[in-house]
TrEMBL record:
<feature type="domain" description="CBS">
    <location>
        <begin position="469"/>
        <end position="520"/>
    </location>
</feature>
<feature type="transmembrane region" description="Helical">
    <location>
        <begin position="235"/>
        <end position="258"/>
    </location>
</feature>
<dbReference type="InterPro" id="IPR001807">
    <property type="entry name" value="ClC"/>
</dbReference>
<dbReference type="Pfam" id="PF00571">
    <property type="entry name" value="CBS"/>
</dbReference>
<feature type="transmembrane region" description="Helical">
    <location>
        <begin position="414"/>
        <end position="431"/>
    </location>
</feature>
<keyword id="KW-0406">Ion transport</keyword>
<feature type="transmembrane region" description="Helical">
    <location>
        <begin position="197"/>
        <end position="215"/>
    </location>
</feature>
<keyword id="KW-0407">Ion channel</keyword>
<feature type="transmembrane region" description="Helical">
    <location>
        <begin position="386"/>
        <end position="407"/>
    </location>
</feature>
<feature type="transmembrane region" description="Helical">
    <location>
        <begin position="64"/>
        <end position="82"/>
    </location>
</feature>
<keyword id="KW-0869">Chloride channel</keyword>
<dbReference type="InterPro" id="IPR050368">
    <property type="entry name" value="ClC-type_chloride_channel"/>
</dbReference>
<feature type="transmembrane region" description="Helical">
    <location>
        <begin position="24"/>
        <end position="44"/>
    </location>
</feature>
<feature type="transmembrane region" description="Helical">
    <location>
        <begin position="117"/>
        <end position="140"/>
    </location>
</feature>
<keyword id="KW-0812">Transmembrane</keyword>
<keyword id="KW-0813">Transport</keyword>
<dbReference type="GO" id="GO:0034707">
    <property type="term" value="C:chloride channel complex"/>
</dbReference>
Amino acid sequence: MPIQRNKILKSIYKWRYKHISQKTFIYILSVIVGLLAGLASVTLKNITYFIEASLEKGIIFSSNQLYFILPIIGLTLVYLYVKYIHKEKLKHAVSSILFSLSRNKANIDAKQMYTQLIIAPLTVGFGGSVGLLGPAVATGAALSSNLGKLFHINSKTRSLLIACASAGAISSIFQSPIAAIIFAVEVFSLDLTMISMLPLLLASISGVLTSYFFMGNEVLFNFSISEPFEVKDTLFYVLLGVGTAVASIYFTKMYFGIINLFKPLKSPKYRLLVGGLAIGIMLYMIPPLYGEGFSFINDLLIGDHIKALGKTPFDAYIANIWVVIALLFGITIFKAVAMTTTLAAGGAGGIFIPTMVMGSALGNVVAKLINNSGLGFSVSESNFTLIGMAGLIAGVQHAPLTAIFLIAEITGGYALFVPLMITASISYIITKNTVDYTIYTRELAESGDLLTHNKDQAVLTLMDLDTVIETNFKIVNPEMTLGEMLHDSVAKSTRNIFPVVDANHMFLGIILLDDIREFMFDTKLYNTTKVETFTHKAPDHIYYGLDSMQIVMQKFQDSGAWNLPVVKNGKYMGFVSKSKLLTAYRRELIKFTK
């Protein structure tokens, strides 16, 4: 069977190389990738909705009691799948894609093509407070990566196809093709050129058409703008921008704070139990935290905050607008907590949609505060709900253009374009100057594995230290005599630097040819002077596995050295020369900019 399969593939390869140009083939693949990502998004949504509907109809417990039980059941099912079937630690969907782009040549494990389709619906369908966009993007990315490998596509083009998959997934979920393209550019640090623009456009169109085909004209937000922007409200949108910036900073810090809080719980079972109970309590107190939260957003957009809040322990006081404001603010605070707890407890999901839920609640709170302040001001609560979402997306994701165009597209027009720009830009500027990296990128940035729009930094990130380490240096021992060193090392070396190591191969220092030049012909010193006499420290060290290529380049700049030793756990591994490093950099830069 494999032999027959290989013959078929070879026939396809030959036909393709003969009849289809590389550029045309990439366009075809981008359409296919958009279609596959769209199908993944539709599948994720339908499986999740099926689970939610089944639980609502098939279980006889009261609604609030279910909130205590369901998250633990869902997380347990995910745990069992991961332990006995997946057998690998779960990684954050978008972060793992970014890592594959920078360090794994856009190769993604084939298991990721179906894993998220199973564990994400189990997490969300049973009440996990996360979104499905991240899993949809991860599934599409895995499909595109493996499709690229099947057709022997190079790593740079596979990276483009992965970005196409993300555009297709977002376009399918939100039916917003322009925002989908911008997301791929902002989040995956893609250069927006005509070479990349057309495949992204084709994938985005393919994704949205897939959504229309399977879901019809069904939209996530059934809302149209009835109150246009008024100049007199400008200051309030500035205020909302500041508020969403503060909320974005809180969201990011809370995420890493809760993740660190769960780290002492080494056993996945303990994390599952603690996280499941915590989510259950939060869901009992604040029901809208259940699942993704799209119905909550829709209810706020049509002005029905009672339905949006659902049944809570505070129903007796819901007629008081200040109680409503307090509950909505509680959603703003606890959505980030519930989302992160779900992920920390072992669940699978994304952060994009929880960000929108949190932003919608905050925008509605700000509007209600203005309208009930007693100062005679009146603003549109629906508009503030929408723009609050944009502010949180811009701040949390560091993606202001995605935020602006996404909200503009899902509302069916650009009537709120000016306030969207005001709020999103203010939120982004404040957040970016306070929090350098997003939830997606912080750990990658700390390890030097993050691709950015900065070409110099991106090229250094793509470089591999192993490719520039040189090992053709003659090693000397500190107990060797000068005569032994000259006979065994200097006479047989083409280099002018000699690493000094002990019997355990621990790096002790270096000797330069200039250090021994004046003693080389003094035969009286051959047997009386040892190598340790001439040994001195290297200008700096490169720590293998710890130093990123950016740090390596900086060490050369700061030390002024032409060669620096590479050590791992104190042991000598070789040298990196500045000339070889710069040659490798130029070569990678040419590949990157082709």
